[in-house]
Predict the 3D structure of the following.
Amino acid sequence: MVALALTILGCGGSPSGSSDGATDGAATMSRVFGGGSEGTTDGPAYTPPQDVMLSPAAINAYDATDWGTIDTSTTTDGYVTVAVTNTERIKFQVICGDMSYNYDVPGDGTPVTCPLNMGNGYYTFRVMQNTSGDNYVELNSSDADVTLANEFTPFLRPSTIVRYDGGSACVAKARELVSPATNQGDALQAVCNFVIGHVSYDNDKASKVANVTGYLPNPDETLATGKGICFDYAALGAAMLRSQGIPAKVMTGYVSPEDVYHAWMSVYIDGSWHNVQFSVDPKTWTRVDLTFAAGASAGLVGDGKEYTDRYTY
């Protein structure tokens, strides 16, 4: 029996989980709004993909078992799928080296897709059943020596954290936003400016999920309501960008000066986008904090200067 720590993913809370792979990062963003959100873009010609790159569930609900069915046939494409039929609380643990991630899995047989976000390496996948408190026992496990098609594949598809499909409203909106784009900087600018302007911070929701484990964002719901917490901002932005062929990570961790627990994006484009809030350079992962740019209270997003990466999704 092992104790699995669970992750709290709301702005201003603190996590009770661990990836054991934290890295320190730093960025400076100016809290200047109005008149400077466009900035300049550059880069090679951009054509949005005709088809959305999805993560088809290789497991059907009727293939799920009470000890968990694990499919590792898609590891090259950057994800693994699990499905469980069990009345107890279930976690799916993804381990690579000294890092591990724990994902909630519904017990109704619904397949859950988890990203292979730790890159190439030898992975272990464990289906864990809750026994009491934070204690879990292993029901099933599988191993895979993973070689990704490329480093971006886990961050170009939907997953349990960044949920969307070909018919999602957020995908349709993203397609509309990027249609005039001449380069990836234009596309990134259009999506980010839309999220910043469309979504307002939901303080009531933040209070409700502050001490709740297993909260998952729903990009289409965030789009429809125009409200959300930092995790929602990041997941909506990532879903829209990924669906249009732009790699995007959802990051969670701490922001100075009070070590506020927070969520943001990291993006990778061929070109650049520079304005008063963001400086995104070509061909490098760059931090983009949409909640900060939208003007959320400093008590919820920190000061935008010193970031410590904790989890990558």
In short: Confidence is low (pLDDT under 50) at residues 14-36. Residues 61-150 form a domain with the Immunoglobulin-like fold (CATH 2.60.40.10). Helices lie at 169-178, 184-198, 203-209, 219-225, 230-243, 290-293, 298-301. The two ends are 27 Å apart (CA to CA).
